[in-house]
Amino acid sequence: MTIETGPAHWLRLQDRVCVVTGAASGIGRAIAEVLAAQGARLALLDRNAQLLEDVARQLGTHERPAIAVPCDTASEDQLQQAALRVERELGAAQTLVNNAGVLRAGSLGALALDDWNLVLSVDLTGYWLTARAFGAQLRAHRHNEGASMVHVASIAGHFPQSHSGAYSAAKAGVCLLSRQLAVEWGEDAVRSNVVCPGMIRTPLSADFYAQPGVEQARAAATASGRVGEPQDIAHVAAFLASQRSAYVNAAEILVDGGMSSKLMDMVPRPGFSPAR
Length: 276
Ligand SMILES: NC(=O)c1ccc[n+]([C@@H]2O[C@H](COP(=O)([O-])OP(=O)(O)OC[C@H]3O[C@@H](n4cnc5c(N)ncnc54)[C@H](O)[C@@H]3O)[C@@H](O)[C@H]2O)c1
Description:
This protein has helices spanning about 5-10, 25-35, 50-60, 75-90, 115-140, 165-185, 205-210, 215-220, 230-240; strands at about 15-20, 40-45, 65-70, 95-100, 145-150, 190-195, 250-255. By secondary structure, it is an alpha/beta fold.
């Protein structure tokens, strides 16, 4: 048996057509960078056309194109146009990373219906519509090595957080949507998995870190002692995109630096505090 060693070969993503939504910024951009470094051919979708062009220009090469496909992932029409263009210019997508997302603050008692609908339309319905728009292309790989979907959900999909109710409900929906897709499309060799990031420093969350003390308090809430970076998510997404995760299906990987395991450390336990 030949063991491939070089990092560029291990994931075997060379020339694979990968679609990444929300690729103009933050986690989506980092995922696009990691996939490009692995030799993938990229279709980058985002509604921010200008930023998207910059990313595509930075990542694309003659042999490994990265095309910018401006698209609102809440729009079925735009997604269908995007899917046609990707197939025409790059060939059938073999990986789809659903990542475009928005966040709106608001407690469930006070949240405007428009905000609820916006968050659900991008963060949940948009993932389903994107999967459906690229579904035929993904299924077209069933006679070779199959295809992979990776959905970026959130730790918020497992743990409620006050004033963020629409977001948590949407992300919880993504976790089950992914398993549903895995079950329905498994016979066509399309896998579907979720990455649940914890706290990651991106433009989406930049305002939080601008407040004094937030970075330190957030770092202390994790077992790893730091806030996550977009690359922390991108490397896991690349693994799930690749054939190295061939038997990982309908799964979720929590990438939160151990934050969700610190629950019992939050309650007072007199006599058990460690001596430091
Ligand atoms: N940053 C975090 O701490 C964190 C934690 C958990 C989950 N997430 C999730 O990670 C994903 C990426 O978030 P991020 O932190 O990189 O945010 P970001 O704001 O940096 O990037 C999100 C990208 O999605 C794009 N986008 C938003 N709505 C869109 C639409 N309707 N159509 C097309 N593109 C659209 C934006 O233009 C932007 O480029 C989101 O799904 C988010 O919910 C982030």
